Amino acid sequence: MPVAPPTAVVRPAPPVGAEPAPEPSRQGWLNRLRTGLKKTGSGIQAVFVNAQIDDELYEQLEEALLMADTGIPAAEHILQDLKDRVWRHSATTPQAVRALLVDAVAEVLKPLEKPLEIGRHTPTVIMVAGVNGAGKTTSIGKLTKHLANEGCTVLLAAADTFRAAAREQLAIWADRNLVEIVSQAGGDPSAVAFDAVNAGKARGKDVVLVDTAGRLPTQLHLMDELKKIKRVIGKADTDAAGGMAAPHEVLLVIDGNTGQNALAQVKAFDDALGLTGLVVTKLDGTAKGGVLCAIARWGEERARTKPGTAPVPVYFIGVGEKLEDLETFDAREFAQALVG
Fold first, then answer.
1. Which of 88, 223, 305, 322 is deepest in the core (most CB within 10 A)?
2. Is 137 annotated as a binding residue?
């Protein structure tokens, strides 16, 4: 018998000022993120207390956004977009304007929202870089847990051979997550990465995560070492079918507390390595968080001026030290937490 076509269900859009309820599984995470960005959220919320919709409100909002580390280009863009939205929606209350500000910030951040893709290459080789103290090795441990929860088999490569504590720390994460690790005391980091990629292929692993030594982008000789690791990984695994040599992902871990310096790090590491994604850590109380808006605006500008490029997405953000304190990035959730 013929089957009747499904009937479309039309639901009214939520009124200005109303936020859609998050999925139950994300509610706890969103609460932790709001707590982590409370410093910025409280500052922006204060602007709307007993406010009039006038030039003074926009001036105070601009100051609050700059204090949140959005940078001037992003703050100016957000404010102009907000004014346009206020005019289009005929918003007349502080609550409505604040809701429209969430929309404006979410739209700026939307290009950073992209899932990490695993499975197109076997193994998917992920190289992880970052400056000392950004939480790189800890983030690798959390990312390993996240991938394991998704059913992926992971092999860790302790290519930070300059610091013995880094190898020991990564080994602890390997034990916690019940995954294998390739490590070599005092060895050449490129050789460790090469061996790990070959081991991952031989053992049928889904993912090989390569930890590298933390360094500042101004340390040119160490940045050259990172470039060498990337080249050697490529020699270890060239995907003939996909036509893409490893590493398939080059992630930079940045500390959410470092403000505009985080943007400088993204630019420098991208120039050296060609970043494919970011992990933002330590959004847990003192971080302002607005630098993600600055990174998004830089990415949009780069895409306009360099054909074939795109904004560097934020795959994960972290709000604490626990394994569950690393989650996928959602632009609207982050905007809600940032605006307060």
1. 223
2. yes
124-330 shares the fold of 26-112: no
pLDDT tier at 256 (50, 70, 90 boundaries)?
confident
Say if pTM beats, i.e. exceeds, 0.90. Answer: no
Rounded mean pLDDT, 5-19: 41
For residue 115, the model assigns a pLDDT of: 93
Q: Where are the alpha helices (DSSP H) in the chain?
A: 24-36, 38-47, 55-67, 72-89, 94-109, 136-149, 164-177, 189-202, 220-236, 260-273, 291-305, 331-339
Which residues lie below 8 Å from residue 167, measured CB to CB, with a gap of 6+?
Answer: 158, 160, 161, 183, 185
Its CATH architecture, for the domain 26-112, is Up-down Bundle (1.20)
Average pLDDT of the residues in 295-318: 91
Per domain, the residue ranges of the chain are 26-112, 124-330
Average pLDDT over the chain, rounded to an integer: 86
Q: Is 17 known to sit in a ligand binding site? A: no
282 is in an annotated binding site: yes
204 labelled binding-site residue: no
Q: Is 131 annotated as a binding residue?
A: yes
Residue 122 assigned to a binding site = no
Ligand-binding site membership of 239 (annotated):
no
Q: Which CATH class is domain 124-330?
A: alpha beta
Query: Is 283 marked within a binding site?
Result: yes
**Residue 134, marked binder:** yes
236 is in an annotated binding site: no
Query: Is 124 marked as binding a ligand?
Result: no
Higher-scoring residue by pLDDT: 108, 1: 108
Task: Say whether 103 counts as a known binding-site residue.
Answer: no
Backbone angles phi, psi at 325, to 5 degrees: -90, 20
